[in-house]
Amino acid sequence: MSKTVLIIIISVAVLFMGMMGAGFFILWNKISQVPVDPSKVAEMSVEEEENVIGPLYPLNTMIVNLSDDGGKRYLRVTMALELSDPESVDTIESRLPQIRDAVLMILPTKTYDDVSTTDGKIALRNQIMEKINTLMTKGRVNNIYFTEFVVQ
C-alpha cells in the first residue's frame, strides 16, 4: 500500500470522526434546550413519592409447626414490617410481645397448601397485617416483607 493511499484513508477516518462529534454536539445542545412540561415533572415526582417505603422494623425469625396431618412440616419465617411513620416504631417496640404472640397464633393454623402458593402467602401477609394493625395505637403497618420463608 502506498503512502498516499494510507494518508487518504486516515484523513477520511479523521474527517468522519469529526463530523460524528459535531453531530452529537449539535444534537446534545438541541436536546438540552427542549422546554420541560411542568405537568410531567409533577407526575415524575408523584411516582417517586409512591416508591418511597416507610421505616422498616425487622422481626426475629419464628419457627412453627404447620397444621398438616401428622405435624411433620414446619415453617420458618422472618419478616420486616413497613411502618407508616417513624413514630410507629415506638408503638411496635412497646407492643412487641403482643405482636409476636399474634403472629405465632396465626402461623400454626396454616397448612402447607395454604402457604405454598403466592396467593396463599399474600393472604397470610394480609391476615398478619390486619391483626397487627388492630394492636397499633399510633401509626400502622403498611406492608409486610417476608425476608425468609422456608417450609420443610
Number of separate strands: 4
* Name of the CATH architecture of the largest domain: 2-Layer Sandwich
Number of domains: 2
Oligomer designation? single chain
Report the total helices: 6
Could you tell me the radius of gyration in angstroms? 29 Å
What does this structure look like?
The chain is of the alpha+beta class. The protein folds into 2 domains: 3-50; 56-151, 2-Layer Sandwich (Tetrahydropterin Synthase, Chain A), CATH 3.30.479. Helices cover 55% and strands 18% of the residues. The protein has 6 helices and 4 strands, in the order ααβββααααβ. The protein has helices at 3-32, 38-50, 88-94, 96-106, 112-115, 118-135, and strands spanning 56-58, 62-65, 74-83, 141-151. Strands 1, 2, 3 and 4 form a 4-stranded antiparallel beta sheet that branches. α4 packs antiparallel against α6. The mean pLDDT is 87.
Task: List the SSEs and their pairings.
Blueprint: H1 3-32, H2 38-50, E1 56-58, E2 62-65, E3 74-83, H3 88-94, H4 96-106, H5 112-115, H6 118-135, E4 141-151
Helix pairs in contact: 4-6
Descriptive labels:
152 residues; alpha+beta; Tetrahydropterin Synthase, Chain A; 6 helices
